Amino acid sequence: MTKYGSFPGARPRRLRTTPAMRRMVAEHRLHPADLILPAFVREGAAEPVPISAMPGVVQHTRDTLRKAAVEAVDAGVAGIMLFGVPEDAKKDAAGTAGTDPDGILQVAIRDVKAEVGDDLVIMSDLCLDEYTDHGHCGVLDAEGRVDNDATLERYAEMAQVQADAGVHVVGPSGMMDGQVGVIRDALDQTGHEDVSVLAYTAKYSSAFYGPFREAVGSSLQGDRKTYQQDPANLRESMRELALDLEEGADMVMVKPALPYLDVLAKVADAVDVPVAAYQISGEYAMIEAAAEKGWIDRDKAILEALTGIKRAGADMILTYWATEVARGL
Ligand code: PBG
């Protein structure tokens, strides 16, 4: 055989020759049990309310939430993360509806539990922003700043009412210092030692939460920069991680996902607890919007984004596409 110049000795392309070959050597693959469905339920809604910046996502009624939970179970989805949307008139400075045993989130937890029992891991957002009239994740002091320790007391009460309603996992998302420890104590002292804490360990102050604010009907005054992390920081997430683990976090989360894959990879490398990533509202909106314009192949882009998040180290992914993707896998 005539040899022309020097040929490569190694040919990685051999392992890419056929779909079967590529499937065999795939290093990561998505499974329905990797996925967690975030879902919104709106108090008093007679019909589901579409969220304009998140086409395909709605604020559920109590009834349609139950149906969505059943569909998630049927598709093999691992869990559901519930967000309550109270009536506007019930919002106040302290976020009282968040600790009302008959508040919308507590009602939703009981509904889903009654519908699917333990077939789905039922999780709840533990944060005040859905319930406060100023839209912040905590209560404010006299100067209008978010008061860390006063907020912790509210979080402890929230943990108890959510656990009383039957939730399996609480997800504190407010980025207050000490929140995991206070919540763990509150759960233990009220007989809920089996309820887990999914700590939002690295939660960045992100422009990509935009559509979520519509989803929960929040009109935030100001921004969250004094409590959520600066996108410029990576090392700081390792400090947050150490604190959350010390305070008793059972699982940790990085959020958003796509612009923070380096954070996710570093966190996943460092821990021996399960790691979650939240593909948030803006990540959803970007792909849906580009697809609607015909600029991107929607289904391929969704799978690529989710696979990338898994490759970076996520054991679990919260995604608004959970049920759809799980069905297709
Ligand atoms: C706070 C919370 C937010 C999200 C989840 N929990 C919003 C925020 O921090 O401003 C965002 C989720 C998303 O954008 O999909 N309760």
UniProtKB/TrEMBL annotation:
<dbReference type="Pfam" id="PF00490">
    <property type="entry name" value="ALAD"/>
</dbReference>
<dbReference type="InterPro" id="IPR013785">
    <property type="entry name" value="Aldolase_TIM"/>
</dbReference>
<keyword id="KW-0627">Porphyrin biosynthesis</keyword>
<comment type="subunit">
    <text>Homooctamer.</text>
</comment>
<protein>
    <recommendedName>
        <fullName>Delta-aminolevulinic acid dehydratase</fullName>
        <ecNumber>4.2.1.24</ecNumber>
    </recommendedName>
</protein>
<keyword id="KW-0350">Heme biosynthesis</keyword>
<dbReference type="InterPro" id="IPR001731">
    <property type="entry name" value="ALAD"/>
</dbReference>
<keyword id="KW-0456">Lyase</keyword>
<comment type="similarity">
    <text>Belongs to the ALAD family.</text>
</comment>
<comment type="pathway">
    <text>Porphyrin-containing compound metabolism; protoporphyrin-IX biosynthesis; coproporphyrinogen-III from 5-aminolevulinate: step 1/4.</text>
</comment>
<comment type="function">
    <text>Catalyzes an early step in the biosynthesis of tetrapyrroles. Binds two molecules of 5-aminolevulinate per subunit, each at a distinct site, and catalyzes their condensation to form porphobilinogen.</text>
</comment>
<dbReference type="InterPro" id="IPR030656">
    <property type="entry name" value="ALAD_AS"/>
</dbReference>
<dbReference type="GO" id="GO:0004655">
    <property type="term" value="F:porphobilinogen synthase activity"/>
</dbReference>
